[in-house]
Amino acid sequence: MQRLALALYSLALWLAQPLLLRKLRRRARTEPGYAVAVPERFGRYRGLPPMDGQGGPLVWIHAVSLGETRAAAILLKELRAQLPGMRLLLTHGTATGRAEGEKLLQPGDVQVWQPWDTPGAVRRFLRRFRPAMGILMETEIWPNLVAGCRAARVPLVLANARLNEKSRAGARRLAWLSRPAYAGLAAAWAQTGQDAERLRDVGARVAGVFGNLKFDALPSAAQQAQGRAWREAGDRPVVLLASTREGEEAMWLEVLRQKWPLAPAGQSQVAIETEARMPVQWLLVPRHPQRFDEVLRLCEAAGLRVSRRSQWGPAPQQADVWLGDSLGEMALYYGMAHAALLGGSFAPLGGQNLIEAAACGCPVVMGQHTFNFAEAARLAIDAGAAERVAGMAEGVAAATALAQDPQRRAAQAARCLAFTQAHRGAARATARAVLELLRAAEGHPPN
């Protein structure tokens, strides 16, 4: 039965390859990175240097997108410290993930796209690189990838693993396909006890609960210092909309229209002093770079003056909204903010990572939808580093009030820093588990 299920799944993916190519061409119009090295997605690697086997073990890490790549960077730093000489094989599924991953490469490392999950592409990938082991970050489970690694005797693990209730329900509905895939992992190292319980329920062998790697991230001190200098030079508190997703900016603009006298769509409002309309400086950072221009148009259509980060000189320009249209500068934006609204949590999208905000000492106000980071959200609320509100209107009110209260925001900022410090250690524990698995695969007894 399992073989038949996998064969039917593989046939469906093989037939879907033209659709994948069409999707890549469409995405490449706005994100050129999707047009790079397309044959790699099908397990074809022309022009890559040969893997001559020199040096330490080749450790494969798959980080599908930007968030997973940043988590992988935290683990990789610890792995390089504990396993000197290791070589990295880094794979991704998105253009933003691949661009971020380029920063992690050292001589001898290789970066390619994740193979499309057909038996042929997976087989060519494994034969080409022959990794000593594979590490899938957070949620990425692909049936043929798991089956191919088992056949090739490549230990494959799920690190920083999380599984929300919605995903568990989906996995249980497709148990004929998903259960063998989860069971085929050599190990799963969960973020939380709840994640561990759900992973076991779908068939995974949970070998440890290590916490969230993202607590071990150290935000750029230079970016934070620059951000704080800029906010201190202003004359109003700064509220950040952090990593917003589609639909949330419109929700925020509607709240602003109700609270402050914005101009009708398409009509300039330059004549009205900013301070007379809004008591805080808004800083807006969309989650996906392909939406920067779209968000700019939304704000301008509402009559707001917008200053883009990409056009700033030595300091932000005066405007109703500062638009963070850059990558890799979240520490700068959190440093600029007195309080932040958490993107992805005001629409049913699961929320974004709040740990980075807390690590920068930026208090967070979140909506009801944080199922992708449920445990981190709960812990932050319990620690007094974040608060939850019913919706965008309540969020704008809460963040504005917090930003205008220096004593309360300072106390909450201190709780943010204490919260992140208390939950560090996942990177070291995960790296140690990787080394134990490598030793076992090489025939050495564990320490």
From TrEMBL:
<dbReference type="InterPro" id="IPR007507">
    <property type="entry name" value="Glycos_transf_N"/>
</dbReference>
<feature type="site" description="Transition state stabilizer">
    <location>
        <position position="214"/>
    </location>
</feature>
<keyword id="KW-1003">Cell membrane</keyword>
<comment type="similarity">
    <text>Belongs to the glycosyltransferase group 1 family.</text>
</comment>
<dbReference type="GO" id="GO:0043842">
    <property type="term" value="F:Kdo transferase activity"/>
</dbReference>
<feature type="domain" description="3-deoxy-D-manno-octulosonic-acid transferase N-terminal">
    <location>
        <begin position="38"/>
        <end position="217"/>
    </location>
</feature>
<dbReference type="GO" id="GO:0009245">
    <property type="term" value="P:lipid A biosynthetic process"/>
</dbReference>
<feature type="site" description="Transition state stabilizer">
    <location>
        <position position="138"/>
    </location>
</feature>
<keyword id="KW-0448">Lipopolysaccharide biosynthesis</keyword>
<dbReference type="InterPro" id="IPR039901">
    <property type="entry name" value="Kdotransferase"/>
</dbReference>
<dbReference type="InterPro" id="IPR038107">
    <property type="entry name" value="Glycos_transf_N_sf"/>
</dbReference>
<comment type="function">
    <text>Involved in lipopolysaccharide (LPS) biosynthesis. Catalyzes the transfer of 3-deoxy-D-manno-octulosonate (Kdo) residue(s) from CMP-Kdo to lipid IV(A), the tetraacyldisaccharide-1,4'-bisphosphate precursor of lipid A.</text>
</comment>
<dbReference type="GO" id="GO:0009244">
    <property type="term" value="P:lipopolysaccharide core region biosynthetic process"/>
</dbReference>
<dbReference type="GO" id="GO:0005886">
    <property type="term" value="C:plasma membrane"/>
</dbReference>
<feature type="active site" description="Proton acceptor">
    <location>
        <position position="68"/>
    </location>
</feature>
<dbReference type="Pfam" id="PF04413">
    <property type="entry name" value="Glycos_transf_N"/>
</dbReference>
<keyword id="KW-0808">Transferase</keyword>
<comment type="pathway">
    <text>Bacterial outer membrane biogenesis; LPS core biosynthesis.</text>
</comment>
<protein>
    <recommendedName>
        <fullName>3-deoxy-D-manno-octulosonic acid transferase</fullName>
        <ecNumber>2.4.99.12</ecNumber>
    </recommendedName>
</protein>
<keyword id="KW-0472">Membrane</keyword>
